[in-house]
Amino acid sequence: DNSSTPSQSDADGNGKRSIGFFPNYNIYGRNFSALDIPVKQLTHVMYAFANISNVTGEVTLSDPWADVQRPYDLKDKDGNATKLEGTIKQLYLLKQQNRHLKTLLSVGGSAFSQNWSLILDNETCRSTFANSAVKLMYNLGFDGLDYDYEYINSTDQAAHFVDLLNKTRTQLDMYKNVTSPFLLTFDAPAGPSNYKLLDFKGMDQFLDFWTFMAFDYTGAFTTPSLTGHAQNLYGDFTIGTPFNTSTGIDYYISQGISASKINLANPLYGHAFQNTYSGPAYLFNGTGNGSFNEPGGSWDYNQLPLTNNSSIHEDDDLVASWSYDNDTETMVSYDTPKIARRKARYIMEKGLGGAAWWEISGDKKRAESLIGNTVYVFGEEEDSMDMKGARLLHGAPQDASGANHDVFGGLETSRNHLEYPGSPYEIFRNNSTGE
Predict the structure, then answer these.
(1) Burial class of residue 141 in the structure, from the number of CB atoms within 10 Å of its CB (0-12 exposed, 13-18 middle, 19+ buried)
(2) Domain boundaries, the chain
């Protein structure tokens, strides 16, 4: 009996995963809806985030209006309690049209992780958590659950988290006789002080894949206040690059995690540093507000570089990039398309499972899309990778000769779930459009 082992339904030959995080608040200030998701370039969408009761451990929707109530067709409002609307309905309609596209309900995130820490040591709460999370996932037509706890902070919590994964997998497996197994995944920390506390062997037996969150290495929070790369692939272990991605990935693999189960998550945003010089390890003073006036100097990638006279710099050794404006004395650490392609090659060479992005509304279009450039590399033959030849025209990548190239040929194509007989919503019970 392999009921507690992860599903293999997610693996399709050597195809890579391409995972986009979609926060439910995107429909507001960013005016980015499910209809804007680049579905052809993604294999999975992580819908973020469900909340956790800090008293009982119950997992619930964090914004019911955005999730299941907001009408996309304003004429379609009948007041029926079992009538589903919102982004979650739209995600299901996308699944009907794109059978390769899997959706997962992501639970936690930085905003709700404090709630997680308050209930994790209570076994009754862990049972409530697992039962309610799986029920919510199933009733709302998702293909699995993604857990994002920032961060497990003790060996006791690490053991309790393994138990939570065990309880969750047990609940997920109750639906095995209905359809193919559901997915269970974990958003994994990139900081050594965090990942060295994890029970890798205990967790891995219940997980389909790990998504390594390779960003926020530096930022407004950095002490001392030195500029640095926020998502560099390699490190030189100097004061300006205290962290790097490859060391963390190597550690995960050394703990017995298969490279093919690890996805490299990249940021679709940058960290700004003001009153400073160009490059890492310079003192800075302030970050300013970022996109949508958010504090902390975090800017969506599609708003970078901040000025037309910013210079772009790429460090081929560390695989990192940044912009600098002499007039405003502002540096922004973020990935360029060239850096995205280098990281994609690393994923291919290392045999990792794929890539992920936080979060998809921040991407640019066509030739400057970081998702598009990454997926392009996945679709290339490994022995004929020509980074300089990658061009995206009208949404369709072409090589240097102009010959069409199957941009999606490198992605895994396992099919999603469409039938949920026990759901209270007719659209999921009957695989309908919900009209």
Answers:
(1) buried
(2) 17-269+337-429
Which residues, including other chains, have CB under 8 Å from residue 39's CB and lie 6 or more apart? Answer: 94, 97, 98, 101
Other CB atoms within a 10 A radius of the CB of residue 79 amount to 5
DSSP symbol at 196: T
pTM: 0.90
What six digits make up the tokens of 405?
């190239």
Neighbours of 337 (CB within 10 A): 20
The Cα–Cα gap between 103 and 106 comes to 9
- C-alpha Rg value of the chain to the nearest Å: 21
Rounded distance between C-alpha atoms, residue 38 and residue 94, angstroms:
11
Helices (H), 86-191: 86-97, 109-119, 123-139, 155-173
pLDDT in tens, 292-320: 988 899 999 999 999 999 999 999 999 99
Write out the catalytic residue numbers.
150
**Other beta carbons less than 10 A from residue 198's beta carbon:** 25
Q: Is the backbone peptide bond immediately before 192 cis, with ω within 30 degrees of 0?
A: no
Does the domain at residues 17-269+337-429 carry the CATH identifier 3.40.50.150? no
Confidence (pLDDT) at 179: 59
Q: Are 352 and 262 in contact (CB under 8 A)?
A: yes
> Of all residues in the chain, what percent carry a pLDDT higher than 90?
79
Beta strands at 209-213 and 262-267: parallel, antiparallel or unpaired: parallel
Phi, psi for 22 (deg, rounded to 5):
-130, 100
pLDDT band, very low/low/confident/very high, at 253 (cuts 50, 70, 90): very high
Cα distance between the two ends of the chain: 41
> In this structure, are residues 239 and 281 in contact, taking their beta carbons and an 8 Å threshold?
yes
Q: CA-CA distances (angstroms) from residue 66 to 33, 36, 80, 94, 262?
A: 10, 15, 17, 17, 30
Average pLDDT over residues 179-203: 95
